[in-house]
Amino acid sequence: MLEVSVRHAFSGFTLDAAFRAPPGVTVLFGRSGSGKTTIVNAVAGLLMPDAGRIASGDWTLLDTEAGIRLGPHRRRLGYIFQEGRLFPHLTVRQNLAYGAWFAPKDAPREDMGRVVDLLGIGHLLDRRPGALSGGEKQRVAIGRALLSAPRLILADEPLAALDEARKAEILPYFERLRDEVAVPILYVSHSASEVARLATTVVAMDAGRVVAQGPAAEVLGDPSVLPAGAREAGAVLTARVARHHDDGLTELDAMGVPLFLPRVAQAPGAALRVRIAAHDVILSRSRPEGLSALNILPGVVHDVRPGAGPGAIVALDTKAGRVLARITRRSATAMGLAPGQTCHAIVKSVSVAPQDVGGARRDLAE
Amino acid sequence: MVDWLSPAEWEAVRLSLRVALWATLFSLPLGVLVAYALARWRFPGREVLNVLVHLPLIMPPVVTGYLLLLTFGTRGPIGGLLADWGIVFAFRWSGAALAAGVMAFPFMVRAVRLSIEAVDPKLEQAAATLGASRPWIFLTVTLPMIVPGIIAGTVLTFAKGMGEFGATITFVSNIPGQTQTIPLAIDLLLETPGGEAQAARLAGLSILLAALALALSEWISRRVAARVGARDA
Fold first, then answer.
1. Three-state secondary structure readout of B20-78
2. In a domain, B113, yes or no
3. What is the distance in angstroms between the Cα of B77 and the nearest Cα belonging to chain A?
């Protein structure tokens, strides 16, 4: 498990953060300027913090007290930058091979052919980065990091420079990385849907401090830690594909609760993560009758958090997991919502957006 | 081979090429080092170094020649020391090469420095995270990307070396077969009655050599640029 604690003073901003990153994808989540990139750069060795310790087991990258400060080239990390940063004078093949050349001969390494297949970049190998699209560049950048025999992969908003279509193209590769490659990943993002899809662990940051950390569903179910506050709030549920219906709907099974959403590609039995945005949930005290909505989840109110504006976020514990609802403060008062109260969450099946449906982490043999 | 040049003129051409070649050979590695230091390092005396490198460009060449004479003459502090080792600059072709090198050095440094500053340090950081140490980063990332700048600097240095006049004549005088390069030969011919035709031939030859050097560098640059590809991360 990677343990990070970093303290660094900039003019007018102090970063003081500590967190643990278990295997899988740990997402540093927070609005821009909250110190996420600073942490990743400190882990990479591109920034030497005033004080801190970064270590995993007996592998110490930085320990200011012990006077250990490994240079970036001795840290064995695969860093995927926001802008790709491919070497323009080298072919894709040479870019991919660059890191492997410097890795210790006995380091466990990925097979070039396997990585090329995983990322679908076989047809690009003899091209130069100048001739690639943004999405292709980023896939090559992922491959380059992966093939350097890293002990940890860092990704700093690798999708932020891409448009929605390209994001949808790249995200599945990160999911495959998480599910098929044993290397832990530290991933920076400010997008709630990205976090919901990828994160095993979430470290939420604000103003240079860690405000929450823990398993993804737990942290994301806490609206107070979301960067955009109530606007981006949403819950993450894990479900299994139960069956595909003839009318174009897929039925999921979320801990025994049926959920309907437009047809997904996964076969019955496959595990899925679905994100339900808080603004797509309506609450009702009694079980509603005669509604067009297909997904109605009974639950118990966990808490009600008033937002800065007229809105409030209600966290509801259902059998399928914690669901968030964004309603007005006026409704919350009128309904007399309080912790412990039973309530029904109404989710329109179509409101589960396709880009929010992603594969869940399969439990791999470690 | 060609008899439209007198043996003395051939001597001047050969000497010019030799002087320019040696001036370029020595300026190249030193110029890349100084350019890299000025572009990427912050150290005390950086501004002083910058001014020192550029002085020959802005000082009257005669002054540069005079300073070279004071420093590298057989009685000068460095010249005297080197003379004990058997290296003499005064009134030798090697002195002409030294003068040419010093005068051309700012051209080399400026061209290379500009191209180094155009290399995105973020690419060098990326190389570091992939395991490359500083020297490897320079060899595998920085150097290949600044090749066009190095070629431009080399050609400028060579051309300047071929044509240097003021500092050379002040430092090592105008000695046929030793220090009489093309421009010095032209200067002498113009002062000799009936030498105008010869002077014109040598002048024409200078222009031809300069044009050839430029064409060659353009050709190499274009090939390199095609290889390096667009400056694009």
1. HHHHHHHHHHHHHHHHHHHHHCCCCCHHHHHHHHHHHHHCCHHHHHHHHHHHHCCCCHH
2. yes
3. 43
Report the pLDDT value the prediction gives residue A364, as an integer from 0 to 100: 33
Q: What are phi and psi of B40, to 5 degrees?
A: -120, -25
Beta bridge partners of A105: none
Q: Note whether residue B1 is domain-resident.
A: no
Q: Does A184 touch chain B (CB under 8 A)?
A: no
Section B161-170 average pLDDT: 91
Q: Helix, strand, or coil here: A145? A: helix
Tell me the two tokens of residue B167.
Answer: 């500092």
pLDDT of residue A366: 29
Q: In the structure, what pLDDT confidence band is assigned to residue B176 with cuts at 50, 70 and 90? A: confident
pLDDT of A140-158, one tens digit each? 999 999 999 898 999 999 9
| Minimum CA–CA partner of A148 in chain B | B130
What's the gap in Å between the CA of B148 and the closest CA on chain A? 12
Domains of chain A (ranges; CATH) run 2-220 (3.40.50.300), 234-359 (2.40.50.100)
Please list every residue in chain A whose beta carbon sits closer than 8 Å to the beta carbon of residue B133: 71, 73
Of B126, B132, B230, the CB nearest to A102: B132
The answer to whether A293 faces chain B, any CB pair under 8 Å, is no
Task: Report the pLDDT value the prediction gives residue A260, as an integer from 0 to 100.
Answer: 87
Parts of chain A with a pLDDT under 70? 223-232, 308, 349-366
| Domain assignment of residue B111, given as a range | 7-228
Are B71 and B77 spatial neighbours (Cβ–Cβ below 8 Å)? yes
Per-residue pLDDT, A224:
67
Q: How far is B224 from chain A (nearest CA, A)?
A: 10
Q: Domains in chain B: how many in total? A: 1
Condensed to tens digits (0 to 9), the pLDDT of residues B90-133 reads 888 999 999 999 999 999 999 999 999 999 999 999 999 999 99
Contacts of A102 in chain B (CB under 8 A): 130-132, 136
For chain A, the first-to-last Cα distance in angstroms comes to 13
Mutation site, B119, B125, B130, B138, interface A, largest A CB count within 10 A: B130
Domain at B52, CATH number: 1.10.3720.10
User: Quick check: is B2 in a domain?
Assistant: no
Rounded Cα–Cα distance for residues A195 and A291 (Å): 32
